[in-house]
Amino acid sequence: MKDFVSVDIDSTLSNDDVFEILSGGLPTFSWRRGDSDVQGLYVSGLDADGVKIQCWTGERPMAMSVSFRSAKGAKDEAKKRLMDQLLNEFLPRIGGVRRIDI
Predict the structure, then answer these.
(1) What's the rounded Cα separation, in Å, for the pair 89 and 87?
(2) What residues contact residue 32 under an 8 Å CB cut-off, 6+ apart?
(3) Could you tell me the end-to-end alpha-carbon distance of the chain, in angstroms, rounded to an integer?
(4) What pLDDT, on the 0 to 100 scale, is given for residue 50?
(5) pTM of the predicted model, to two decimals?
(6) In the chain, which residue ranges form alpha helices assigned H by DSSP?
(7) How many domains is the chain built from?
(8) What is d(CA 17, CA 69) in angstroms, rounded to the nearest whole number?
(9) Contact assessment for residue 63 and residue 11, using Cβ atoms and an 8 Å cutoff
(10) What is the pLDDT of residue 77?
């Protein structure tokens, strides 16, 4: 699996909605919301191992990325487990996956 995964999501949910889904479902991540001058609203999470999830909720389609680049010792099994959880549990609640680059 790649060290950087990107997903485009067709969604009408708000930034707050996406924050609630991700922070409620992945409590081991430290989550925050923000507003970028360039890409607009986003939700970002970082876990203790250095795995980073970002979702640019102000874009249409929404752009989500999962980066394992800074993760300490991220094994392929752990990457697959997180991606399976995102793809099967959380992304369907956020919207329809338009494109994925794994």
Answers:
(1) 6
(2) 43, 44, 45
(3) 6
(4) 93
(5) 0.93
(6) 15-25, 76-85, 91-94
(7) 1
(8) 27
(9) no
(10) 84
Nearest to 41 by CA among 16, 23, 67, 65: 16
CB atoms within 10 A of CB 38: 6
Backbone angles phi, psi at 28, to 5 degrees: -80, -10
* Structural contact between residues 38 and 45, judged by C-beta atoms closer than 8 angstroms: no
CATH number reported for the structural domain that contains residue 82 in this entry: 3.60.90
CB 70 within 8 A of CB 50: yes
Residue ranges making up the domain that contains 33: 4-101
pLDDT of residue 63: 97
- Which neighbouring-strand residues pair with 5? 66
Is residue 22 within 8 A of residue 43, CB to CB? The reply is: yes
Is residue 74 within 8 A of residue 2, CB to CB? The reply is no
Contact 93, 23 (CB under 8 A): no
Residues of the chain with pLDDT under 70: 74
